[in-house]
C-alpha cells in the first residue's frame, strides 16, 4: 500500500457549473481489488464529455460524490492479487478508472490499463485514451476505412482530430483537415493532413469539394455535427460515410442527401466497444507509439486546483490546439 494515507483529489458533490469541482486534501488513497491496479497519477486528460457529466446533462450519471477523469498516466504503486500483466513501478496509461483520475492516486481495472512506452512522457500518456481510441474506432471499427480513401477530419486541431490525422496518414489515407485559426491549421498540417481548410472562411466547403474532385470525400469524422452535418452530406462520395464523434445540439438535414449517394451517418460511441475491440485498438495504437507516428499533442496544462478553470476553458475554446491535461 502507498505510504500516503490521504491524497488530494477533485470531488463533485452536486451536478452543476464548473465550480462544483472542489479540491479536497483528505481523500483516502484507494486500495486495488484483486483484478485492479493502483496508480500514482502524473497527468490526467480533460475531455469535453466530463463537462457534460459534471453538469448532469449526460445520459449516464455517476453516484455522488465522485472524482472525474478516465485518461490517466503514471506509475503502478500496487496491484491486486490476480493481476499478472503489471507490477510496481511500471509506466502505464488508462482508458478508464474506477475511483477517478483527477487525483494523486487512482484505481483502475487491469483491462483498462496499458503499458506506456518510454518514447512518450506522462502528459502524452494522459492524452492517448479517449482521443486515439475514439479516432481508431471511427476510422476502422465503425467506418471500415481503407488506404487510399479521402478522409475529412472536421475540427482536426483538437485531441481526437490530431489523433485521427496521425492514424489516417500512417495508414495510407488522403487526409483533409479543418481548423479555425492559422495556428490550428499549421498543427493539423504538421500532424498528418495533406491539405487544410479554415472553417471560418465562407467558401471553405467549396474548396474542400474542389480538392476532393469529382468522387468526393469517402469518410468524414465530424466533431461538431450540429453545425456541419448538412454540409457534410453534400461533400460525400457515393457510398460515403459520416462518423458522428461530437455534437452540441440538434440540426436539420435533408435525408434526400443520403439517398442520392447511398451514404450513411454513424454514431461513434467509444464506451460501446467490446473487450475485443478495446484489445485490437490497444494493440494497433501501441504499434503506433513504438514506431513513432502516434505523438499526442499537448495543449493547455493545469494543476489539480485549477480543474474548474480547465472545465470553463474547454467549453469556451474557440479553436482547440492539442489535448488539455491536468498535471498532478
Number of helices in the DSSP assignment: 10
The radius of gyration over CA amounts to 20 Å
Q: Give the class from helix and strand content and strand pairing.
A: alpha/beta
- Say how many strands there are: 15
Chain-averaged pLDDT:
95
Q: SSE order, as H and E?
A: EEEHEEEEHHEHEHEHEHEHEHEHE
Q: How much β-strand is present in the residues?
A: 25-35%
Uncertain residue segments: none
The coarse overall form would be globular
How would you characterize the largest beta sheet?
Answer: 7 strands, mixed
- What is the helical fraction, as a range of percent? 25-40%
- From the N-terminal CA to the C-terminal CA, the straight-line distance is 20 Å
Explain the layout of strands and helices.
Layout: E1 6-12, E2 21-28, E3 36-45, H1 48-55, E4 72-79, E5 91-94, E6 105-109, E7 113-115, H2 122-125, H3 129-142, E8 150-154, H4 159-170, E9 174-179, H5 182-190, E10 195-198, H6 204-212, E11 217-222, H7 225-235, E12 236-244, H8 256-259, E13 264-267, H9 275-291, E14 298-303, H10 307-316, E15 323-327
Parallel strand pairs: 8-9, 8-11, 9-10, 11-12, 12-13, 14-15
Antiparallel strand pairs: 1-2, 3-4, 3-6, 3-15, 4-5, 5-7
Amino acid at each position: 500500500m502507498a505510504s500516503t494515507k490521504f491524497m488530494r483529489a477533485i470531488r463533485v458533490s452536486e451536478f452543476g457549473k464548473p465550480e462544483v469541482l472542489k479540491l479536497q486534501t483528505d481523500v483516502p488513497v484507494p486500495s486495488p481489488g484483486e483484478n485492479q491496479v493502483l496508480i500514482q497519477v502524473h497527468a490526467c486528460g480533460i475531455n469535453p464529455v466530463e463537462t457534460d457529466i459534471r453538469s448532469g446533462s449526460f445520459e449516464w450519471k455517476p453516484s455522488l460524490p465522485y472524482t472525474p477523469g478516465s485518461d490517466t498516466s503514471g506509475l503502478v504503486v500496487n496491484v491486486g492479487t490476480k493481476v499478472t500483466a503489471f507490477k510496481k513501478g511500471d509506466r502505464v496509461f488508462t482508458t478508464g478508472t474506477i475511483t477517478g483520475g483527477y487525483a494523486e492516486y487512482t484505481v483502475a481495472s487491469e483491462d483498462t490499463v496499458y503499458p506506456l512506452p518510454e518514447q512518450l512522457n506522462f502528459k502524452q500518456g494522459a492524452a492517448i485514451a479517449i482521443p486515439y481510441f475514439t479516432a481508431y474506432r471511427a476510422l476502422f471499427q465503425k467506418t471500415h476505412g481503407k488506404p487510399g480513401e479521402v478522409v475529412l477530419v472536421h475540427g482536426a486541431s483538437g485531441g481526437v482530430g490530431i489523433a485521427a490525422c496521425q492514424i489516417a496518414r500512417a495508414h495510407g489515407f488522403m487526409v483533409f483537415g479543418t481548423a479555425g485559426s492559422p495556428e490550428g491549421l499549421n498543427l493539423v498540417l504538421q500532424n498528418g493532413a495533406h491539405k487544410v481548410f479554415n472553417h471560418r472562411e465562407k467558401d471553405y466547403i467549396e474548396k474542400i469539394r474542389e480538392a476532393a474532385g469529382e468522387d468526393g470525400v469517402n469518410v468524414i469524422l465530424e466533431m461538431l455535427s450540429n453545425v456541419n452535418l448538412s454540409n457534410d452530406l453534400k461533400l460525400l462520395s457515393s457510398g460515403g460515410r459520416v462518423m458522428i464523434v461530437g455534437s452540441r445540439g440538434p440540426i436539420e438535414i435533408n435525408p434526400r442527401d443520403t439517398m442520392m449517394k447511398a451514404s450513411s451517418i454513424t454514431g461513434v460511441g467509444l464506451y460501446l466497444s467490446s473487450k475485443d475491440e478495446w484489445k485490437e485498438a490497444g494493440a494497433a495504437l501501441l504499434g503506433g507509439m513504438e514506431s513513432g507516428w502516434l505523438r499526442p499533442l499537448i495543449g493547455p496544462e493545469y494543476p489539480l486546483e485549477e480543474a474548474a478553470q480547465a472545465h470553463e476553458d474547454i467549453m469556451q475554446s474557440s479553436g482547440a490546439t492539442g489535448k488539455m491535461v491536468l498535471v498532478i
